[in-house]
Amino acid sequence: MTNATQGIDLGLGGKSALVTGAGAGIGREIARWLARAGCRIGVNDIDPKTAAGTVEELRKAGSEAISVVGNVRDEDAVATLVGDVVRAFGSLDVAVNNVGMNANRPVTPLLELEAEAVRDVVDQNLVATTICCIAEARVMAKQRSGVILNVSSGETTRPSVGLVAYGAAKAGINHLTMSLADELGPLGIRVMAMAPGTTLTEKVREVFSEEHIAGIVQSNPLRRMTEPEELGRMAVFLASDLARCVTGQLVLADAGAHLSRNRPANADP
Fold this sequence. Notes:
Helix content: 40-55%
Mean pLDDT: 91
Oligomer: single chain
Number of helices: 8
Low-confidence stretches: 264-269
Order of helices and strands: EHEHEHEHEHEHHHE
Shape: globular
CATH architecture: 3-Layer(aba) Sandwich
C-alpha cells in the first residue's frame, strides 16, 4: 500500500508546455499552474508586453519560461512559435490552445449578424485552434507522446442566443477534439477539451455589472462563478499522469450552469 503521506507524482516535472493566450486571464492561470507542477512554459500571446509579464512572473517563481509571441490565426506564425518551444526545451509535451473569444464582437441577434463577423469569430476560435493542433500534433507524433488541451465553452451545451457564431465555433472545437483523440491516440497523443462557464477574470469584472454577475451566480446550482485558477488546476489534472487513460473528453467547468433552466439570457460570453 502506498504511504498516504507521500506526495503524488503528476508526471509533469521537466515536461515542456505551450499555452496560447497566456498573457492574461485563463491562459495566464493555466501557465502558472502547469509551471507549479514542474513544466517549462512557452508563453504565447499576440501582445509582447503581456507575454513578457507572464514570463517574468514565472521566472521569479523559479520556473523556466520563454515568450513565443505570435498570432495563432496565422499558420506560419504558429509553426514558428511551436518550433521555438521545441528548440528551447527539446520537446513539446503539453499544448493548451486557449485563444478564442468572441473576437471583441458584441452580443448580436441573428437577424443583425453579418457574414464578416461570423467569419471573424469562427477564425478566432475553430480555425485558430485547428491550426495550433496541426502544428503541435506534428511534433508530438514524432515523439509518440503528448497532450493537447483545447479550451471550449459552456455555450456549447445550450442555445447561445446572440452568440450563435461563437457557440457554433466552440462546438466545432468539441468535435475537433473527439476526432483528433481518435486519430492521434495510436500515436500516444491524448486530446481533450475543457469548457468554462463565465469565468471571473479581470476582463469579466470590468465588463459585467455587479447585477449581471449576481444573476449568473444565482442561475447555476453551485451559486458561484468559475475562478481562473480553477481552470489552471483542471489543466494540470488533464495533462498529468492522473488522467493518462482520459482522451476525447469535454470536461465542463461551469458551476453546473448547463443544468440550469432559469439562467439569464446571454450570461456566458
